[in-house]
Specification:
alpha+beta; Alpha-Beta Plaits; 2 domains; four-stranded antiparallel β-sheet; two-stranded antiparallel ribbon; 10 helices; 60% helix; elongated
Length: 310
């Protein structure tokens, strides 16, 4: 195994560990909710606890059991509907990440629960700091997993299945947002509204943390410049799968004097990762340059006529 492969699996292990810690020590002890398979597991855990009597041991490990079942189901559907290649990207996480959940539950790690007493003497549990902490830690964990070349095997895989089989006419990012939104707001039937509101905050912080790990601080949009002999395959992918515009520029190598085609597109950091992964499959010799863009005006972004800066 090469050093590059070692580093990839080290990032994957660290990312999984951060995610598992955030769930067991922050999310669950505070009775919080989020999106993805984690949120779906919390939803089913809550329903089972409300509707059925459970013993202490089952109650302690119920979340991890549900997560393991859902992770295996996602893996099976990914293999059937997306193919072997996509399934291989999540098989390691689907089988090993739930084991970390079981392990951390067994170790009974200290919980980050903040009990606060108000000026009037009322006691309550503060959820804002745990919400931010969970979003940041889980976001960093997910970002490291994505940087290692794997996917989390959660809502991104579910969204990919829905996108390819049911909703190919809207962008993958919108499908992902829809999946997480449905999971979070479905919890309104078993969680109170305050938990749902904090879940939305958690998801936003998580997504921003992921973007920071992937591309650094301060970029909501990025400019991608791509040089590849496979440009005729890359352009339809960006236009039809990512739903972003493309500019094709005639270029020339200064040293080789070879005429080449250069693709330019503006997209989100997460979308740039999907484009990069697609290019890696078809052209390992491609040149891809990604640059953060602080502001973008034009169709599909900010309205150049109504966005005033002063």
């Amino acid at each position: 195994m090469t050093n590059k492969s070692h580093n990839k699996y080290i990032l994957l292990l660290i990312g999984n560990t951060l995610n598992a810690y955030a769930v067991i020590s922050i999310l669950k002890p505070n009775g919080m909710m989020t999106g993805g398979v984690t949120g779906l597991s919390r939803l089913f855990e809550r329903i089972i606890k409300i509707g059925f009597e459970t013993n202490m041991v089952l109650e302690q490990y119920l979340f991890s059991i549900i997560y393991y079942i859902l992770a295996i189901l996602v893996l099976v559907f990914a293999y059937i509907l997306l193919g072997k290649e996509d399934a291989l990207k999540i098989i390691f996480l689907s089988l090993t990440y739930p084991l970390l959940l079981f392990l951390f539950t067994f170790l009974e790690l200290p919980a980050m629960v903040l009990n606060v007493t108000s000026n009037t003497g009322d006691k309550y549990t503060d959820l804002l700091i745990p919400t931010l902490a969970y979003g940041i830690i889980s976001g960093f964990g997910t970002g490291l997993i994505l940087r290692s070349g794997f996917t989390s095997g959660g809502s991104d895989t579910i969204a990919k299945i829905i996108y390819r089989k049911l909703l190919p006419f809207i962008s993958f990012g919108q499908v992902l947002l829809l999946v997480d939104g449905i999971i979070i707001f479905s919890a309104i039937f078993v969680f109170d509204f305050r938990i749902i509101a904090y879940a939305v905050i958690t998801k936003y912080v998580n997504m921003r943390a992921v973007d920071i790990i992937i591309l650094g601080i301060g970029s909501k949009r990025v400019k991608m410049e791509i040089i590849s002999v496979k440009y005729k395959e890359i352009i339809p992918f960006i236009q039809n799968s990512i739903h972003r515009g493309v500019t094709l520029v005639d270029s020339e190598g200064a040293f080789s004097k070879v005429k080449i085609k250069q693709i330019i597109t503006i997209c989100s950091p997460r979308e740039s990762l999907h484009i990069k992964n697609f290019i890696a499959k078809i052209d390992e010799n491609a040149f891809v340059y990604v640059m953060p863009s602080s502001t973008v005006w034009g169709k599909g972004f900010k309205n150049i006529a109504h966005d005033e800066l002063s």
